[in-house]
Amino acid sequence: MISSISSMNHWWWHFLENHVYRIPPPPKRVRTKPMQVLCVGPPRSATESLQQALLTLGYDHTYHGWDIVYEEPPIPATGWVRLARKKWYGGGRGSRAEEKSGDCSISAEEFDELLGHCVAVTDAAASCFAAEMIRAYPEAKVVLNVRRDLDAWHQSAIKTLVHVNESWSFWIASLLDREAFWAWHVYERFLWALFFRAPDGDMARAIERNGKWIYREHCDMIRGMVPPERLLEWSVDEGWEPLCKFLGKKVPDAPFPHANAIGPGGGWKAREDMATKRWVEGALTNLILMGLLFVCGCAVWMRWGR
């Protein structure tokens, strides 16, 4: 399940994306309300709990990494692959001017094509494109959601992100089902693989090897980019009060959500099981159809081809 990150701009991947696993591009969103909150902390830093909290505070819609693969088809994974390729590979094949520029700029208009219906964003999109979003939306407030215990965060990432990367059922489904291909492609080959610096393509080993220093470096980058009056460094253990004070909202009369636990019944496990079930079912359906076509082809050949 190791893919070569250095070759992600190779013609072979473009061929798979545009022909073998092609899906319609998502409809372009149009921004009707300004982007208000960017939650740019690393994954496994209460991202889904924070999404639910922001929805409770009226920030509708708050975008989460699950939206990349759970939105109504056509899923927007193709759009995020395009932006990831622009950031890390200079815009894609043939974009030599951008490749040589030594810089990457993603405009608010480009983000809005995927996030135009959102007023807040958290998880994968926000952490992987943190610097670009902070520049693109200069009026938005920035929340650096963190885990105070770095060792606990690292173990959480291994139990979830690495676990998914080592899932044979998901990987096999990605070979047989277009939606599963794009879900694997956007996360395991692009977003998390590149975020965790996997030059050899082994995203799981990259998290184990690099996770802690990347976490520290990412947080230091955010602190250096954002002026103090625009930034809140926050942990889920702090609950509603600092978050509401920073956003100018009244504290809700409800417990702070804790949505993304790892264990049975937790948000992460439920989401993972639901996604895997859908993708495996799609792959099995396609496998059965291919088998039927093969049997029919053999029958026709035996009847008429000899």
From TrEMBL:
Signal peptide: none annotated. It comes from the Eukaryota. The chain crosses the membrane at residues 283-304. Gene3D superfamilies: P-loop containing nucleotide triphosphate hydrolases. It holds the Pfam family Sulfotransfer_4. Keywords: Membrane, Transmembrane, Transmembrane helix. The keyword Cell membrane does not apply. This is NAD dependent epimerase/dehydratase. It comes from Colletotrichum tanaceti. The lineage of its organism: Eukaryota, Fungi, Dikarya, Ascomycota, Pezizomycotina.
